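Per your request, structure below.
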């Protein structure tokens, strides 16, 4: 049985870690950090949604390393989207909040 990782899939043909973002810790309790790779830090917006589709967080102008406070988040699975200036989703993934 194959297990899917939240955001660390290798890029096709490279065999290396995800070139866009690393998120940690996962599962998270009080905060989660999005660590962007160089070259992906220009003009991206992060959007976080509950599993039911409610927008929980949005931050334009994402920095290389951004920490999100999860004090208003309930326990559960959340989806994130990294969106460029044109509205195109560059990267999507999920993380777990366990309080």
């Amino acid at each position: 049985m194959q297990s899917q990782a939240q955001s660390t899939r290798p890029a096709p043909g490279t065999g290396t870690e995800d070139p866009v973002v690393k998120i940690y810790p996962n599962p998270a309790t009080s905060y989660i950090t999005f660590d962007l790779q160089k070259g992906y830090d220009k003009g991206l917006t992060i959007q976080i949604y509950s599993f039911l589709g409610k927008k929980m967080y949005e931050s334009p102008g994402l920095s290389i390393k951004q920490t999100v406070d999860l004090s208003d988040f309930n326990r559960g699975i959340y989806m994130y989207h990294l969106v460029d200036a044109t509205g195109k989703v560059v990267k999507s993934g999920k993380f777990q909040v366990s309080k």
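The chain has no helices and seven strands.

Regards,
D.
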